[in-house]
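pasting for the record
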Amino acid sequence: MLALLFPGQGSQRPGMGHPWTSTPSWGLVDRVSETTGWDLGWLLTDADADQLKATRNSQIATFTLGLIILDGVRRAVVGMDRQVAAMAGHSLGEYTALVAAGALTAEDGARLVKARGEAMQAAADACPGTMAAVLGLDPDSVAKACAGADGAWVANDNAPGQTVIAGTTAGVDRASELARELGAKRVLALPVGGAFHSPLMAQAQDRLDAALAAASFTPPAVPVIANVDATEHQDAARWPQLLSEQLCQPVRWRESLQTLAGLGVTTFVELGAGTELSGMVKRTLDQAARASVATPDDLPDLAERLDAAG
């Protein structure tokens, strides 16, 4: 059984859309650009690293690339959707997963991602913060380190030995010190524009909730695993609340992967510019098969592997 995984903010790369410009899938860029009023072609091909780091840019660019790659996979792998048992997306990637599963149209997804990115950008500007990855320490110990620091919280439980914290700069610095004292092997500052999945994003809540209320959700064709509870959901009415809660709550990604495995998923395919999610699968489910698609050159190998799997 197969699951599709969609990455979130931080996976973006300058020029990540270039390999797709001559493919039929590039037509999705015009749809998203028309819906949002933004030049997604420029973001995906010409924006530099600093421009893509801005939350309002990185989120819509990552979302759009995910849809382009999904379309490319569907064109290249005949009957691929019949093999997909479930989907999940990391943070922003949850919106891409919902479009992929048919719970949102590409247009509604684009409008939501634009509103989310702008709201989170404004919240980050009003309440500056940062994030750091704590490596080699269990989640309970990381939570203990955050509890001992003013202004730090667990933001992502990504994989065994990989937890991300978020908060004020002073709070994350202090929590990082405490994590090292508790046995963390490394603590790495992340190049992000805010303290995502923490209470510092609360100022974005009203704007996101208004956008969610205006969107039309339908039951997904396959279960989508929610970040906030690591549980499968096919009830369309639940998704606005789940996405709202996701804004300030931790991403329970390690548990989400375990939920997918519990559903019988044995192969995980990451659709995005990087391979971060594939690495998390390896750390969490070492017997699972993994694949990733970032460019059209990756499609023949994926098609061959999925054909062989039946």
